[in-house]
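hey so i finally got around to running the thing on that chain from the lab meeting. sorry it took forever, my laptop kept dying and i had to restart like 3 times. anyway pasting the input first so we r on the same page abt which one it is
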Amino acid sequence: MTATLENMTEECEAILIASRNYNIEKSIWPTDVITINYLLTQSAAMKNVYDELSVLSAQQRAQFLDQLVGTLSFWSPENAIEMRAARNRLIDVNRKISSLAKDLADLLEERSTLENQHPFTSNTHYHIANVIEEASRDNYHFRNFLAELLQALAGQFDLKYWPYLPAVIKEIGDDAEATEIYATDPRTEAATSSTRSSKADFVRAMLSMIAELKSTPSLYFSKSFSLSDSAMADLVNVCLKLSVEELVDSGYVKIYGIEKKVYVMVIARIDCYCWMLVSQFTSRHD
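ok and heres what got predicted. didnt touch it at all, straight out
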């Protein structure tokens, strides 16, 4: 079937239906099934979006719609709120680990001092190999493949060759204190880049999604591909189920489109700068 504006909605919805049916058949991605069922009720509102996908190949349209469904399912404003809360909690947890590890390391040091200076013992762990062995007693793979090797090493090399238990705990604390929290994917980074949650989270996630598609060589998306601001506004209004009072227009989307372009330019310049540094370093050591 030729990709024309007259049948583009039908073609896009056929892709969505096929994806939904596959998920149902395999009992996977129930959230995506719900998302697709909702999109299938919004044919008229999504028409402009579907029409603009006519410039893509059938494979590219399928990829775009698959990623659209995934973005709506997992990077909605509600999910962005949860992600921000998780990030803040992770920061707090690392701070607590750092503090508690320092306290525990100090207590382990004090226990060793007391046992060494007085005729008492707690009969507790003092060798890292014992800690590893006991912690791994329910680990089948350790017991069958590593336990004997570890015991042999512990017997071959005395205590001075192994890390001191307080030092191990201190390193865990130092590691937690020095950690940098960052998103593990571009869409999460985009959706949580601002300090407060808003509709813009979804706009940023969508712009990041399109950028990811364009940067995937095997998909052959044109570097010039983008949705118009009006189509993006329709997408936001439909996907976020906005009320009449909350509807956004192309002007709202344009702001974040400019923001994304600036961000991409900055990243490109950083990548270029890093490449130059690597090239200079390599040339000096050839």
